[in-house]
Amino acid sequence: MTVCIYNGEGAGNQALRMVHTSLISMCTSYDVRFISPEEIKQGGWVQTTKLLVIGGGYDRGFIKALGPQGMKTVKNFVENGGSYLGICAGGYFACNRIEFDKGGPLEVCGKRQLNFYPGLCVGPVFPGFQYDSESGAHAAGICRPHSNEKDQLQIAPFLCYFNGGGKFVYPDEKTCTGSDSDLDCGDLSKHCSFELSGNTSETSITVLAECAELVDRPAAVVKCKVGKGVAILSGIHFEYHAERLNNENTYLASIIPKLLETDSNRLAFLQHILSHLNLNIN
Q: E strands of 116-228, at which residues?
């Protein structure tokens, strides 16, 4: 079986290198390869692919390159039992709606077709983001919510590379159901696992990580049950190896040592994410 990494318009070069390196090292039972927008649209890959990954970059490039046909193929792949991992831009891309730099010079707001997470992704969470720059890079404090009964694995908090990613917000117009009757429907961080009841379907959402250093502890990583498949969307770059970042970059020089301090916890979290995506990890 294959793990495919999107490589086309919208994909950032550094993000491609980082996710490919991480998956090659951890997914040794799979053929890890790049896939073009054209191949995605053709559809032959779905029969042999376990996971599709779309990483950092800019999601309007994904939309332009894939078009309605390609996005429908991706959506059908997941609904029929496949797995999807969307990191940073790939996370925004897979939400129902996004608000990126709303009111600012880089504003991108609107509906998105995949709708794996039937809510809103808002970012950048931290200030300073510029395309093709590390000016907005941040070593974000990340922690996992308390595990539910089906997920007893506890992973220590860690610092993670963050640059332009968003937080996942619960939409007010939806109805939420679950064990916590006091759940604030605008704040995912108060509930580890719950269901969203829409007009036509019910989607299970699990918060896998929160941004611990912010007062409201927004959801940084969410897992979405989509038909027979699963999608994990992330605002953080848990696939980034700090030692592979440019330590001569002015913006990165101070955060690389911080990232390295908890890198073993980051790796444990990455392995945990891949297990949630139904991959067999050695």
A: 117-123, 138-143, 158-162, 167-169, 175-177, 193-197, 202-211, 219-226
Calpha distance 70→66 (Å, rounded): 4
- The H or E element spanning position 194 is strand 193-197
What DSSP string runs through 84-99?
A: EEEETHHHHHTEEEEE
**H-type alpha helices, the chain:** 13-26, 37-42, 59-79, 89-93, 256-261, 263-276
Does the pLDDT of residue 198 top 90, yes or no?
A: no
Token pair belonging to 124 = 């950048």
For residue 163, CA distances in Å to 112, 173, 205, 240, 242 come to 21, 29, 24, 11, 13
Output the pLDDT for position 170: 76
Reported as a pLDDT band with limits 50, 70 and 90, residue 197 is very low
SS3 of 138, please? strand
Euclidean distance between CA atoms 55 and 139, whole angstroms: 18
Residue with tokens 């039937």: 118
Residue closest to 50 by CA, chosen among 202, 204, 282, 275? 275
* Per-residue pLDDT tens digits for 223-234: 999 999 999 999
Strands 95-100 and 138-143: unpaired
pLDDT tens for 74-84 read 999 999 999 99
Asked whether residue 155 carries a pLDDT value surpassing 90, the answer given is: no
Region of 119 (left: φ > 0; alpha: ψ -120 to 50; beta: rest) is: beta
Q: In terms of Cα–Cα distance, which of 237, 251, 19 is closest to 135? A: 251
Q: Which two tokens stand for residue 163?
A: 């640059």
- Specify the length of the chain in residues: 282
Tell me what percent of the residues of the chain surpass a pLDDT of 70. Answer: 85
Assigned token pair, 5: 């990494």
Average pLDDT, integer, range 139-166: 79
